[in-house]
């Protein structure tokens, strides 16, 4: 994550890393099991897919995380 977030502002780095951490955390896996009936392997695949989508987006367009801030300012 350091390579993907090195050019982001500290707050943006924290958000990106926090989301990835949440996706691979035990509470996320437990929620996928309890709320969606996924077993450990399925939850792992779902989390891996989500992490890949997020990291691919950061590689493709690092500024995309800034768009969230821009959206908030427009409201």
Description:
7% of the residues are buried. This protein has 5 helices and no strands. The termini are far apart. Helix 3 packs across helix 4. The chain has one domain. It is elongated. The mean pLDDT is 89. The protein has helices at 2-5, 10-23, 26-36, 40-60, 64-74. It has 75 residues and is mainly alpha-helical.
* Total individual domains: 1
**Quantity of strands, as a count:** 0
Main β sheet profile:
none
Specify the number of helices.
5
The Cα radius of gyration reads 14 Å
Point out poorly predicted stretches: none
Helix-strand string: HHHHH
* Assembly form of the protein: single chain
TL;DR?
This protein has five helices and no strands. With 75 residues, it is mainly alpha-helical.
């Amino acid at each position: 994550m350091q390579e993907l977030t090195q050019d982001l502002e500290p707050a943006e780095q924290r958000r990106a890393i926090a989301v990835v951490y949440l996706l691979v955390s035990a509470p996320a896996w437990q929620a996928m099991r309890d709320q969606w009936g996924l077993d450990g392997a399925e939850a792992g695949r779902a989390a891996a897919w989500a992490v890949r989508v997020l990291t691919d987006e950061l590689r493709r367009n690092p500024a995309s995380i800034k768009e969230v801030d821009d959206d908030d300012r427009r409201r």
